[in-house]
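comment on this one:
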Amino acid sequence: MGKNILLLFLLLMFSCQKQNINQTESKTDSTKNSVENAHNTKKSLDYVGTYKGILPCADCEGLDTEIVINENETYRIKTRYQGKGNKNFIKKGNFTWNKNGNTIILSNVENEPKYYLVGKNTLTQLDLSGQKITGSLANDYILAKQPTDTSLETSIDNNATVDLNNRIQTTTVIKKVNPAVGKFALAETKWKLLSLYNTKVLTQGKKENFLKINSKDDRFTAFAGCNTIAGNYIMPSSNTIDFSDVIMTRMVCTNMTLEDKFGAMLVQVKRYKINNELLTFFGEGKKVVAQFQAIK
């Protein structure tokens, strides 16, 4: 009798252990399949393309947004603040995938959203920590993929129609939008140099010292007494600007102090402000590094 009880006990233990092993293997396989499916997101979805929408904006009517995702893992974002002029702000860089393979992470982005969830023909902006935004405005953070048409140039247009929740851009136009509209917009206006580091600058000779920003090729030209100054610029966000690759011709002049200071000033600029016909450049903090006046 005792032997039968012992045999029954051993059989029950063996059955329980086998069941636990099967359950563990089942959970492992389920987790493995879940991860593999997530990693397949970037392979199974045709994510390459252009996405457009109007995202919520804390200090404007809405943020017109166009994101181009390329197959070589580079991106380009073009944004415009509704109600604050028609200037387009452009940022470029590379992106990586999260470990689940369903979210892209933009490089060269600080203190701004950089996580975007990839869906079927959609790109959803996530919060700063990479979590999905919830609440009544959740759907407003969805960008819609645009039809592919390489024969036309797409851009944000004030008269464009919207579809997804009355917010997704759908119009394709041939004419490129001029991001400098207005009497004294930053771009396409010729600005006369008034002061440099709070020191008044006087014009010497017949040619005025000036700065002109060209929105069509993202470059600028300038003059500060002798040589021609030129370079590139980007506008990461509203009222911010970053000059780079500043170069100048090297004609030998009697006094080149002003243009040397001018070139050094450009790479220090962080923000700008336009008040009527006066343009002010700021460096770190609220330090004024230069002021200009629009040439009418």
